[in-house]
Amino acid sequence: MPQIARESLGRSYAYLDPASGRKQARRPGARSALVVICHAPPAFVFVQHVWAARASTTEITEHIFSMHAMFGPVQIAIETAGQQYLLYSHLVDEGLRRGIRLPLIEGRQYTEDAKDARISEALQPLIAQGRLIIQSHQQEAKQELTDYPRGATKDILDALAGAISLLPKPQPILGHQDARQAVLDYLSRAHVPSTQRERFLRGSHAQ
């Protein structure tokens, strides 16, 4: 795993996939899963936080607010299909009660089969290019990745794919465009600090 300086990390994005009654009926071991990711220069996706549990609404709520305090994500997307929308509404109300504005958005809805396609489409290119960084202590995420697609659970991978969909997308580099500047623009859109972008620029000049 490449060495990542914490101060070089971009802003965080979080995705919560709550375990609804329907989901639990189809997959009895299904859990609620929360993943927080960010960009790391020059083009890595760094997994900052992973959590999965068969948790109550109260437990999920406390974890969301703790995560928000720790990482300050730009967006927190929550799947809101069926009864899952009740959790979204509860978090909005709880944020008002606590005087904390959570940057909540509704996650895009997928069928179970479509979720498998989303996981593959989101993760395979990053893995093939060596750009997905899962930390050594995030063993559950690594195990799901190892067992996919035949593993008993894929809740973390589903939330990870959802989080990846929130990240700013790199723009294509045109023939007349400076490739180094295109990367710097991309890091800017990913909220990587300017000092780290300048460090990358100096390193590119040195090469």
Q: Mind explaining what this structure looks like?
A:
β4 (75-79), α3 and β5 form a beta-alpha-beta unit. This protein has eight helices and six strands; from the N terminus they run βαββαβαβαβαααα. The radius of gyration is 18 Å and the shape is globular. The chain has helices at residues 21-26, 57-71, 84-98, 112-128, 139-147, 155-166, 179-189, 194-206, and strands at residues 13-17, 32-40, 44-53, 75-79, 104-107, 132-133. Helices cover 47% and strands 17% of the residues. With 207 residues, the protein is of the alpha/beta class. A six-stranded mixed β-sheet has the order 5-4-1-2-3-6. The chain folds into two domains: 8-167, Nucleotidyltransferase, domain 5 (2-Layer Sandwich); 170-207, no CATH class. The longest helix is centred in the middle third of the chain and has 17 residues, at 112-128.
CATH architecture of the largest domain: 2-Layer Sandwich
Run of helices and strands: EHEEHEHEHEHHHH
Determine the strand fraction and express it as a percent band.
15-25%
Mean pLDDT rating: 84
- Biggest sheet strand order reads 5-4-1-2-3-6
Shape: globular
Identify the notable features of this structure and list them briefly.
Nucleotidyltransferase, domain 5, 6 strands, 207 residues, 2 domains, alpha/beta, six-stranded mixed sheet
Tell me briefly what this model is:
The chain is α/β, with parallel strands linked by helices.
